[in-house]
Amino acid sequence: MIEITNLTKKFRNKKGEVVANENISLSIPKGKVYGILGQNGSGKTTLINQIIGLYKIEDGEIFISGNSVKEDPKAARTLCSVQTQGQLAFGELTPKKAVRLMGELRGGKPEEIDEQIDYLFSALDILEWANTPGNLLSGGIKRLTAFCMAVICAKDFIILDEPTNDVDPVRRKRLWQEIKRMTAKGCGVIVVTHNILELESVADIVTIIDDGKLISTGTITDIKSRLSNHLKLNLHYDDEGTAEKLRIPEWGISSSHGDGMMIITLAPEKIDSALEWGRTLVTEKSIVSYSISDTTLEDVYIDLIKKGA
Question: In sequence order, what DSSP letters do the residues of 123-134 get, joined into one string?
Fold first, then answer.
C-alpha cells in the first residue's frame, strides 16, 4: 500500500511561490491498476516524483509498504519501478541488454531474468528486435522496451507515465494485458495518462488531479455516478452552422458542439423523446445521423475539470 497524507509541494520562481500539489491524501493498493488523470501542469509528475523520492517531502507524508519516503527516499526507488514519459536514449544498447541490465540492478537471478525477458518480448511481440541496436529502433519499440525495463523483476509498485505513447493499436492491447497480469501477481500499477478511453477499460481506481488539488477519486463506476445516470444524444451534421440553428428541447439538460457534432445530455426517461427528435431531424435533413450513448469517464473528467476551474 502507498499511503499519502496531506501532501503539499511548493516551488519558488521569479514570480514567487508556486503550489504544485496541495493537501493531497491517497491510498494506492497493491494488486490494482490505479489511474491518475489530469491536464498538463496539473501536478501529476510532481506527485510521482514525490512518491519515488526525487522531490524532498516538506509537508505531508508518504509511506510505501510501511516505509517512510521522507526518512528513506532510496527505499521508494527500490520498491517502485518507473517508466518515464520521455523516450529513453538507448544508443547502441539492444532491448535485450537494456532489460537484462535493469533486471540485474533489481537483484534478479540470471535464469529468472532470462525467463521474464523471453516471456515479455513474446507477449508484446517484439522478439524480432531483441538484438537490434537502440538507435535503429522505432519509437513504439523503444516505448515497449522501456515498459519491459520497468516491469522486469519489479517489487511492490510499477509507475507508468503515458506507457502507450507511439505504440501501435495491436501491441497497445497486448501491453494493457500485461499490466493486468502484473496486478494479478499482486503488484500495484500506477498509470499516468491522457488516454482516458484506454484507462477506462482497465483501471480499478482513478484519481483526477487539477491545479495541484485532488478533484475526485474512486472506481470508474463511482466517479461516473457523480454525473448522475445521464445519457447522451449525439447529433452529426456536415454544416457547422447547424448547431446555431437547432433549438434544444426542454428535456436537454446541457449541450456542447464542435467538429460536426452536437452532444446533448438527457435523463434516461427522456430517451423516447430524444430518439423521436433525432429521427425528425434526419427526415428534415437538418442532420446526417444521430445516436444514443452512455456517459463516459471522459465526459465526467471534463465536467469535473470545468467545475474545478
Answer: HTT-GGGTTS-G
3-class DSSP state for residue 107?
Answer: coil
Which class for 240: exposed (0-12), middle (13-18), buried (19 or more C-beta within 10 A)? exposed
Alpha helices in the chain (DSSP H): 44-51, 73-79, 95-105, 110-123, 139-151, 169-184, 196-202, 220-225, 242-245, 271-283, 297-308
- Length of the chain (residues): 309
pLDDT tens, position by position, 59-103: 999 999 999 999 999 999 899 999 988 888 888 999 999 999 999
Task: Give me the amino acid identity at 7.
Answer: L
Distance CA 173, CA 29 (A): 24
* Residues 257 and 270: beta-carbon distance below 8 Å: no
Give the containing element (helix H, strand E) for 22: strand 16-28
Q: What are the structural domains of the chain?
A: 2-224 (3.40.50.300), 228-308 (3.30.70)
Full DSSP string of 158-219: EEEESTTTT--HHHHHHHHHHHHHHHHTT-EEEEE-S-HHHHHHH-SEEEEEETTEEEEEE-
CA 157/CA 210 separation, integer angstroms = 24
Asked if residues 237 and 260 have their Cβ atoms less than 8 Å apart, the reply is yes
Single-letter amino acid code for the residue at 126: I
- Using CA atoms, how far apart are residues 131 and 223, in angstroms rounded to an integer? 44
**How much is the pTM?**
0.82
140 vs 124: CA distance, rounded Å:
11
Check residue 137 and report its DSSP letter: S
pLDDT range class, residue 307, cuts 50, 70, 90: low
